[in-house]
Design brief:
Layout: E1 3-6, H1 20-28, E2 33-36, H2 38-41, E3 51-52, E4 55-56, H3 58-62, H4 65-79, E5 84-88, H5 97-102, E6 111-118, E7 121-124, H6 125-136, H7 150-163, H8 173-186, E8 192-198
Parallel strand pairs: 1-2, 1-5
Antiparallel strand pairs: 3-4, 5-8, 6-7, 6-8
Length: 199
């Protein structure tokens, strides 16, 4: 690993060692470069056109010039020979925007995408996509799925809608409580990574 781009929307975490400056210094001591790409690739953009009734819509985020610029920066880093580890807060890559939003827009471009699940386990993007389709219990539709990638694209859309950020004022009361607990857990747990490099 040579470069760690952070895709967390915020500059700070409740877990102090993952705050931007401390993490940057820690990685530097191991000869690993750090770059903050939360504004470009984060799941909570400032652009209000990316929201519908308070919910972030991944397709709208992916269409913005800022996001496209972030994707190009990742691809440029890979082209320069770096092995990158995209960092975010979710342990399971299937429930994180780094997979459902970012890697969805990197797949199929000759990039080797592997998700670091734990110290001993990595999952390829292809393996994750099979797991995602199975978990969502999706099946090919002869009328809808006319393109080769139609089924997995539908899976990305369904999962994106499930995990997308929703402003607290727009959430149901029970959902607010559950998400508050979830956010507190995420920000006191180690951030997790997806490793990307060229084939």
């Amino acid at each position: 690993m040579q470069l760690v781009p952070s895709t967390i929307s915020l500059f700070f975490s409740r877990n102090p060692q993952f705050n931007r400056e401390l993490l940057k210094q820690s990685l530097k001591s191991h000869n690993i470069e750090y770059v903050f790409l939360g504004e470009e690739l984060g799941a909570r953009p400032k652009d209000l056109s990316c929201y519908v009734e308070g919910k972030a819509i991944y397709e709208k985020i992916a269409a913005t010039p800022l996001f496209k610029n972030g994707i190009e920066r990742v691809k440029l880093g890979i082209k320069k020979g770096y092995t990158l580890a995209l960092m975010c807060a979710e342990k399971d890559p299937m429930t994180c925007h780094r997979t459902i939003l970012i890697c969805r827009n990197l797949r199929g471009q000759g990039i080797d995408i592997r998700h670091i699940v734990d110290l001993k386990t990595m999952e390829t993007q292809t393996e994750l996509e099979k797991r995602l389709i199975a978990q969502l219990k999706l099946h090919p539709d002869i009328f809808k799925d006319t393109e080769p990638d139609a089924l997995i694209e539908r899976a990305y859309e369904v999962q994106g809608d499930k995990i997308a950020f929703v402003e607290k004022s727009k959430r149901e009361p029970d959902k607010i409580t559950a998400d508050t607990v979830k956010e507190e857990h995420e920000h006191t747990s180690p951030e997790f990574m997806t490793k990307v490099r060229t084939y």
